[in-house]
Amino acid sequence: MSAEANSDTFREELWMWGQDDDKPRFLHTMIRVKDFDAALDFYIDGLGMKLMCKPFDVPARRVTATFVGFDSLEAGGCVEIVHLWDHEGDFTHGDGYGHFSVGTPDIEGTLARMVAKGAEVVVEPTVLIEGGPAVAFFKDLDGYQVELIQTKRTQ
Length: 155
Hints:
Radius of gyration: 18 Å
Order of helices and strands: HEHEEEEEHEEE
CATH class of the largest domain: Alpha Beta
Oligomer: single chain
């Protein structure tokens, strides 16, 4: 393949979110991580997300990034995982970040998998409103809170 053809393919990949939308939609949220490979393992092997694109470098920003999710880039609702090349230590999350939420048909099994991957349980599965689904919260490897919501009725 010629260099020009490679360049054209790359330019098309830059439009991965779409080229002809006629209304706004949610695309992704971004988190910064200390260990890129560990974060990918945590979200892909632990939570069951899939890699949406090959990891890529952005030299101008000095980062490596990729997207993970359950469906596709076009469907949105992805998590952008970003590793800053020059950052050392932990990230602070401030008091504005709360959590992102993932629906799961098996909240107990999913939480157990996440604990095996190093998650810290913040709230065990519990029903907050009578007749509603169970919810649980855990922190990922970088301290971001993730909410699990049971999406399959068991009764």
